[in-house]
């Protein structure tokens, strides 16, 4: 089954009163219903007519329909729209567009509706239904936005709470770290003081032992010096004793 699309445009043609253009689009054809609030016009572009127009412009049928929908679904800036008389109460709807630097114009003849009230009522019904759907969509979007807003506020409050807790945690950790660091520094100072005291205490015994060693060496030297004269005395005494007998010998004369 061929899908259809519906659009409705409030169009302000050049040198004419505003009109409402309701369009029903398919892949190979489209229908137009137009009203100015008092009169109404219709245009049924059959597949044969659309195919012939597309062939005149060297376009595929689908591309022709899409381009028409682009200019009749939304009023394009830069395009000149006209809604002029075509005789016998009929109208001609035209619009311009640029293609490869050339301004082109498409025209479609719209016949006076055999029942203007019914055609106008159909357009108004479509606009009312579209307005209702749009209002419902806006209501749903507004509710969704409000829910998102509430969730965003909750997330923001939670984020601020987490940030505050983070700051408090970091402050507490910093204080604990600072206390531990200060205690470690005090312990290091204490250990350094003990080490300095031990070094100072270790130097004093060494100095005392060196002094004792020096005094002992001096004492031995003195003893040696005292012993040496004794040895000399003994030697002299031996010599004296050895020489005494010689002195006592007397020569006897007969």
Write out key terms for the chains shown.
alpha+beta, seven-stranded antiparallel beta sheet, disordered C terminus
Short description:
The chain contains three helices and seven strands, in the order ββββααβββα.
Mean pLDDT: 82
Question: Based on helices, strands and strand pairing, what is the structural class?
Answer: alpha+beta
Strand content: 15-25%
Tally of helical runs: 3
Task: Report, as a whole number of angstroms, the end-to-end distance.
Answer: 192 Å
Unreliable residue stretches: 224-254
Chain-wise SSE layout:
Layout: E1 5-11, E2 19-25, E3 30-35, E4 40-45, H1 47-56, H2 61-73, E5 81-87, E6 90-99, E7 102-112, H3 116-248
Antiparallel strand pairs: 1-2, 2-3, 3-4, 4-7, 5-6, 6-7
Helix pairs in contact: 1-2
Task: Tell me about this structure.
The protein is an alpha+beta fold and 254 residues long. Helix content is 61%, strand content 21%. α1 crosses α2. The chain is built from three helices and seven strands; from the N terminus they run ββββααβββα. Strands 1-2-3-4-7-6-5 form a seven-stranded antiparallel β-sheet, sandwiched between helices. β3 and β4 (40-45) form a beta hairpin. It is rod-shaped, with a radius of gyration of 63 Å. The chain has helices at 47-56, 61-73, 116-248; strands at 5-11, 19-25, 30-35, 40-45, 81-87, 90-99, 102-112.
